[in-house]
Amino acid sequence: MKYLCLVYSDETDLHGLPDSPHDSECAAYAQSLQDKGQLLAGQALEPVATATTVRVRGGEVQITDGPFAETKEQLAGFYMIEARDLNEALRIAQGIPPARVGSIEVRPVRQLQVN
Amino acid sequence: MKPTNSKAPIEQQIQTLYQSESRRVLATLIRLLGDFDLAEEALHNAFAAALEQWPQNGLPDNPRAWLVSAGRFKAIDRIRRRQRFTELSDQLPPSSDANDDELYTDDDRIPDDRLRLIFTCCHPSLSPEARTALTLREVCDLTTEEIASAYLAKPSTIAQRIVRAKRKIQSANIPYEVPGPSELTERLQSVLQVIYLVFNEGYSASSGAQATRVLLADEAIRLGRLLHELLPEPEVTGLLALMRLNHSRHQARTSPTGGIITLEEQDRSLWDASAISEGCALVREALNAGPPGAYVLQAAISAVHAEAPRWAATDWAEIVGLYDLLLRVQPSPVVALNRIVALSYHREPLTALTELETLLATGELDQYLPARAAQADLLRRLNRLDEAASAYAAALTLTNQQPEQSFLTRRLNECKKINSPVD
After folding, report:
1. Is residue A114 part of a domain?
2. pTM of this structure
3. Between A86, A91, A110, which is nearest B174 by CB?
4. ipTM value
């Protein structure tokens, strides 16, 4: 079963705390998941200041800067994983290095109902 | 045909069997079918089939295995019929190719199914409210109406909570398993917390009708007993002991009119002696198992009270020592407060009052009734009655519960009476 692990963190905490992970650690963890066949895709993201939001309303395209985020924690990256069940997915999520400074939201992937 | 030995009509035997076995059968069916709703339907179909067939054919040799088999057969039959319409191929339960005998007649595995069910219902990815409702419904077989009345909620709210929890178990694929050794301690905490929440809801005077409150306390103890039987970890033993010991005093702690009777004022002959001896034996068992956790220590404190023949004979030195250990395992202002109260009996109220004032200065217990009530009580015992009276008045503003209000009012009036000289 596929799960998406969304990495959220305060962007300053992501690199600024003693416990903040280095890129090499994140890359090594992703590699270890890949070696076990559990990583389907995963990327780190540029800071939210670089984001652009697109909406289509009544056929009209609206483009604005940034997401409308009220929270302090921002989406910083994601891991698409393959796990037997939620317990295995949670074990994988615990090992994602930014879990130490931010949080990991684990969401089961929904199959689109296409007939 | 096998003649029935018992004189009881077979319908009555089936009824008894439902009470003793239905949760075990359900737990196994959930494992075999991988679906709560399907398993519940299968359970009812199995008992319906028993009511139909057993009066003619007699009781089977292994009724539980018969019920599991019948339930599973009917569920698979139903899935197959559904499949014929929808042509879905992934709906068959995963275990259908395994050897049937292994699936449900191996007695060693059947208790595991109930343990699996408990861990699934208490999974930390479900909200605490959902865990409690689901456990009471699926493991204890309380109806949604019973759960609702115990928690002063609408039955539809509880039903909705259970439906959502089951949906999450299904769609997030929460597994039906006992966690491995590396996760067991952490996951067990969640299970113990659910059981203790249920117990305290039953034990506290703050909710529901008397009958449903006793029901919750009894269910929590039953659940604790089952868990202790299936997984005799020290903290499980400790929680069961704690509940048995606290519950041993339930006849003594309220007056016939529903008033609060403090530990000091309780008639100790009303305490349940068999609950106390079982509780104390469990405490010893847990203490022998290694460094004690929070539940074991709380149970040990409760045991010291239970073993004192009179209030004056309480071993306060032992209790303060146990609170010191508890503070190390579970540092919290509430534990600190309880330690201070014990200290006031072990040393003297003034030492305790000084410590309590330091604790209150942190502001964490400002709105916590037991802290204000303890402060008032210490002042009363120090004969500082004016201050005591205003502390009781302050405590009164923190509760809406009638029994607590009348207790505090009684104390408040005592302080005023002693304080104003008779003319």
Report:
1. no
2. 0.81
3. A86
4. 0.85
